[in-house]
Amino acid sequence: MYKSLIKPIFFRFDPEKVHHFTFGALKFFNRIPGVSAIIRANCQVNDSRLEREVFGLKFKNPVGLAAGLDKDAKLYSELENFGFGFIEIGTLTPKGQPGNPKKRLFRLKEDGGLINRMGFNNGGVEEAVERLKKNKGTLIGGNIGKNKVTPNENAIDDYEICFEALFPYVDYFVVNVSSPNTPNLRALQDKEPLMALLNALQIKNNKKEQAKPILLKIAPDLTDDQLLDIIDIVKETKIAGVIATNTTIGRDNLKSIHQQETGGLSGKPLTKRSTEVIRFLSEKSNKAFPIIGVGGIHSAADAIEKLEAGASLVQLYTGFIYEGPGLIKAINKELLSK
């Protein structure tokens, strides 16, 4: 129904407006008694064989929602109804910010992709915390970043503010230094500033009664030498793992008229590269840490490929928009068939 009826209608309108409309509609319909139960009955695959224990957390299935869709933790419960094993919110910043000027989200229909230059638009971490206080059991990842106006030399302060505010309300953290849409953010991926940032967060983490997993989200555009640095950084800082990968600034072999738009490219054009990064990290580290695989998962086969390349869990974003909720169920069904 989604691909034959709903998607063709949605894809005729501006993608950001459709996003806000969809969020409003999902919130409305899930308030109607019985609707949430109907969605769960049709979408969820509940089987103990799908459960995964990764970095000390128990996931009911290995298919999660990537950061970027529910930036402000407005719809995590409703989205979980579609069958996700976990929901990652954010990227959140200490203060709310509008992000980059519109238009900033583009569908590349011929390529099965999206380009976004949203720019960490969010209402600020404290607003999200108020919503997370109402969580009734959804496994939540908190993706954190810095405000646009914060210079890189003060970036650690922003990440620490988000970390402290979210700590009681999320199950794991993701340090986002790989978005291409905040000026100079990717410079924090260099070894020295990245080590300083992760060590600072780990110091705060280790002072807690029970530390929580911290993961690093990396760009697909890193060279092999930079990926080897990432392996060293994970080992030295003792963070829990890596999310591979964020969006790409590459534009190879695209057909869409939107291919020259600036921003991060996601979806099918990223499938191969993100899997390559997962396999490289897994093999070169001798599977020393868990990897969450994300980037261009549009089918069950895409997800299986990432898991076989070395990912412990996978996340959807663009594939969820193009393929609909049925993709989550298809991946879990395929995992059960193996």
UniProtKB/TrEMBL annotation:
Membrane topology: Peripheral membrane protein
Cofactor(s) required for function per UniProt: FMN
Keyword RNA-binding among UniProt keywords: no
Keyword Flavoprotein: yes
Reactions catalysed: (S)-dihydroorotate + a quinone = orotate + a quinol
Major subcellular location class: membrane
Note on how the cofactor is bound: Binds 1 FMN per subunit.
Residues annotated as binding substrate: 71, 116-120, 176, 181, 246-247
Pathway as given in its UniProt record: Pyrimidine metabolism; UMP biosynthesis via de novo pathway; orotate from (S)-dihydroorotate (quinone route): step 1/1
One of the GO biological process terms: 'de novo' UMP biosynthetic process
Keywords for this protein: Cell membrane, Flavoprotein, FMN, Membrane, Oxidoreductase, Pyrimidine biosynthesis
UniProt record similarity statement: Belongs to the dihydroorotate dehydrogenase family. Type 2 subfamily.
Name the UniProt record assigns to this protein: Dihydroorotate dehydrogenase (quinone)
Organism: Myroides pelagicus
